[in-house]
Amino acid sequence: MSSVKICGLQQPEMVRSILHLPIDYIGFLFAKSKRQVTSEQAARMIEVLAEQRSAGRSHPLSVGVFMNPSQSELTSIMQEAPLDVIQFHGQESPEQCQWVKDTFPGVQVWKVVSVVQGYPSLSDNALASDANGQSGVPTAEELNHVDALLTPYKYVVDAILLDTFDPEYGGGSGKTFAWEAITAYQAWCSAVNLRLFVAGGLLPDNVGELLDTYAPDGVDVSSGVETDGVKDLDKITRFVERVKHRDTSAG
Question: Which terms are listed as keywords in the entry (predicted)?
Answer without folding.
Answer: Amino-acid biosynthesis, Aromatic amino acid biosynthesis, Isomerase, Tryptophan biosynthesis
